[in-house]
Structure formats: C-alpha cells, structure tokens
Q: What sequence folds into this?
C-alpha cells in the first residue's frame, strides 16, 4: 500500500521501488536499466527521509555536472509544491536550490568543482547518474555523510563491467551492515512496459541487443568482467582516502616509459601495511621531467627508498632512467629482475583481505587514477576509456596463454617491483631494508 504522502504527490511505487524505499539501509546503490525510474525513486527516497527528520535539514543532489541533477531536482520541486511546503526554488540547476517552509534546503552540487563538496555536512546525499561519478567523488560523498550520520543514495546505469560502480554493486549486494544494492530493470517500469519482462518491446530489445548490453542496460545487473589479471581488486576495499604522513619514510616505486606511460607510485609502509598515497602517472614525459615533478611534492622531503624496473638501469641510446634519477635527485634506485607471474602472485597476496582484521595489506588513495584504472576501478586517465590490465583472450572470451598482455600495467608493475624488493616472494616482515643515500 502506498504511503499517504506518495498518494498526494501522485506516486504509485512498483514492487521493486517499494523494496528500495523500505530497505532501511543508510547506504543504497541502485543499478537501473534505461528508463527504469531511477531518478523518480531517488527523489522519493529523499522525500521520505525528509519526512522522517524531526528538524530542518540539508540535502545534496550530486552529479558529474549540474545538468545531470535536473530530473531529481524537478521531481522534488513538484512534490514539495503539491505538499504545500515549497518556500523557494531556483529556475536554474547550476547551481540549484530548493528551500522548504521549515528551512530545509536541497542544493545541487557538481563533482567538477570539488570545493562544493567541502562545505557544511548534509543530512543526506543523492548521487544522480552516479555511475558517471569518479571514485574520488564517491569517497568524498561518503566522507561528508559521516559528521551527521547521514545517508547516501546512488542511482545509475552501468556503463561497462569495469569501474567502481559495478564493483560496489557486487560488494553491497548481500545487504550486510548499512549497505545494500538493488537492480531496477527497465521492464519494472510498468508505465512504459505494461507487459513487464514479457513486454513485446523488451523482447524486441533482447533480440537485437548483445547479452552484455541487455544485462547491464536493461536488467541493471553487472556483467562479470572477463580476463582481468587482478580480479581480486575491489574499489570499496582497496581504495579510499590515504593520507601522507609527514616524517614517515616515503618509498617511490617506478616503472619508466614514454609513449605508453611513466608510473611513479608514492608509498609509505606502516606496520607492514602498504599505503599508496600519491602517484605521478604521465605520458610523453622523460625522466628528468618526472623527477622535477616529484621534487615539487610535499612528500619529497621524506623520500628514503626507491625501486625501479630492471630495464630502468639499462642504456637504450640515452642515459638509463636510474642514472638520471641519481644525477637529478641524488636518489639511488634499487632494481632486480621479477618474473611476470611471480610478481603477479606477490601483488595478489597483498590484495587478499586478512580474515582477522578484515583489511588487505595494500590500500590506494582514490585520486591515484592511473594505477586504479589498471585494476579496472576507474577509466584510464589518458583516454577516458576502460582499459585494465588483462590476460590475452580469444574471440570466445577464453584466456589464451599464461602471460597477460603487456599493456595498461605501468602502475601495477611499479607496485610489483616495490613489493618484491621490500618483501620478497614470500611474506617476510623481518626483511632487512637498506636505506639509500642522498647527496
């Protein structure tokens, strides 16, 4: 039975929408098919939360840009007008503002301007077209919910099988703790598809679409990614806000390159926990330029260790990258030959979640988009496409050979070189580290 308030605003939720609205969870992710009514259910979720609050509140509508908040903004404006409690509403959404009779405010925010997410903490946040938000914005929104014990509602359509959104959907699917994910298929919108799953239009779409497209864009279910080298990686587990700790030793782990990419991962190891807090991930820069960037970083003063690909010690018609680092910075970079599969297993062991602590031994800051893209958590920062480190695959999706494709792996290789050098091929917490010298 619909809520009396929903009846006043003319909203008759479907069974699937009712399940979402009645979940009682604090963090909700809705993966909707196209035209499934994601924006509608998001606006009604906020409306319901407003009615539950005893005092005036502050709510945010956050999207990759202001325009993507429009649907939720207009639904809410109409609903509050029908309830007779709308005091003020802007004509524009860039930014937009709704003020209610009791002083409650609903404001639009754009992820393009991170400063808008650093203001007074809200009671709740709706992530509009959330699958198009980046990982850093996701963590920023979660952080802004903390001061007031606020809630977060994410609604979006899967753009691909890779990225933080499908990974988070899978992680929240079980509904443990305060988190829950839901699928909202296109055919659950009975207003558009009165025949539901068997509606003729849905059947037609299924016939002319690939299985992956239909599952993601119509059914709102993630397609398991194929061929990822590190399928253990989960953005909600391995990524987050990792702060640089001043006066603690900093390690720089490097995979040099030029056209393909030059990756430098800045790391601190605290109680054997590897914390990747920053990176330099560039293309078209030579070693002197990357070193110059590194020396401008606030953490450079604490750099004590360095590791580089063994190829970085070799001369290839130019000075070896390791020598350039020594000449330009005074930092000695260690290196050793690392077999591909042995190095892969070493990194996998650090991604494994400890059954006692519930945490992995390696964490990466959400702004390190280069290495995160190689794990399949975010888009490649150079191309904006999903380009992750993968095994070689045949046309049927079967893995071919026992060595991954040697591309989209610069940051990953940098991590492997550092982990193997500092921890070996089997975990050894008492390994003696050799401190490098500065001149």
A:
């Amino acid at each position: 039975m619909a809520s009396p308030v929903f009846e006043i605003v003319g909203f008759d939720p479907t069974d699937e929408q009712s399940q979402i609205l009645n979940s009682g969870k604090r963090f909700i992710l809705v993966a909707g098919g196209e035209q499934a009514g994601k924006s509608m259910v998001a606006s009604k979720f906020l409306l319901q939360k407003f009615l539950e609050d005893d005092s005036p509140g502050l709510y945010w509508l956050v999207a990759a840009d202001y325009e993507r908040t429009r649907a939720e903004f207009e639904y809410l404006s109409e609903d509050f007008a029908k309830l007779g409690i709308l005091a003020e509403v802007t004509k524009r959404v860039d930014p937009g503002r709704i003020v209610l009779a009791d002083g409650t405010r609903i404001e639009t925010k754009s992820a393009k301007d991170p400063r808008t997410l650093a203001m007074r903490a809200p009671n709740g946040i709706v992530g509009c077209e959330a699958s198009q938000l980046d990982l850093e914005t996701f963590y920023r929104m979660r952080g802004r919910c903390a001061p007031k014990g606020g809630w977060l509602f994410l609604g979006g359509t899967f753009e691909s099988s890779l990225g933080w959104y499908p990974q988070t959907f899978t992680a929240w699917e079980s509904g443990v703790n305060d988190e829950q994910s839901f699928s909202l298929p296109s055919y659950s919108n009975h207003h558009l598809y009165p025949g539901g799953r068997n509606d003729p239009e849905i059947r037609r779409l299924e016939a002319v679409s690939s299985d992956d497209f239909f599952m993601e864009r119509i059914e709102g279910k993630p397609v398991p990614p194929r061929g990822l080298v590190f399928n253990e990686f989960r953005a909600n587990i391995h990524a987050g806000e990792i702060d640089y700790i001043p006066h603690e030793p900093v390690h720089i782990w490097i995979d040099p390159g030029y056209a393909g990419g030059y990756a430098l991962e800045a790391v601190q190891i605290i109680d054997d926990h590897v914390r990747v807090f920053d990176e330099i991930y560039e293309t078209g820069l030579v070693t002197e330029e990357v070193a110059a960037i590194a020396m401008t970083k606030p953490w450079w003063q604490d750099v004590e260790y360095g590791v580089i690909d063994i190829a970085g010690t070799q001369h290839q018609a130019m000075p070896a990258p390791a020598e350039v680092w020594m000449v330009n910075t005074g930092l000695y970079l260690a290196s050793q030959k690392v077999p591909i599969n042995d190095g892969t297993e070493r990194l996998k062991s650090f991604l494994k979640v400890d059954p006692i602590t519930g945490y992995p031994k390696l964490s990466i800051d959400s702004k390190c988009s280069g290495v995160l893209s190689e794990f399949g958590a975010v888009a490649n920062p150079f191309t904006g496409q999903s380009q992750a480190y993968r095994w070689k695959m045949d046309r049927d999706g079967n893995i071919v050979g026992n060595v991954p494709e040697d591309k989209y792996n610069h940051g990953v290789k940098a991590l492997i070189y550092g982990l193997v050098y500092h921890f070996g091929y089997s975990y050894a917490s008492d390994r003696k580290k050799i401190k490098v010298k500065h001149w």
Observations:
- Residues 427-439 have pLDDT under 50 and may be disordered.
- The longest strand covers residues 273-282.
- The longest helix spans residues 38-52.
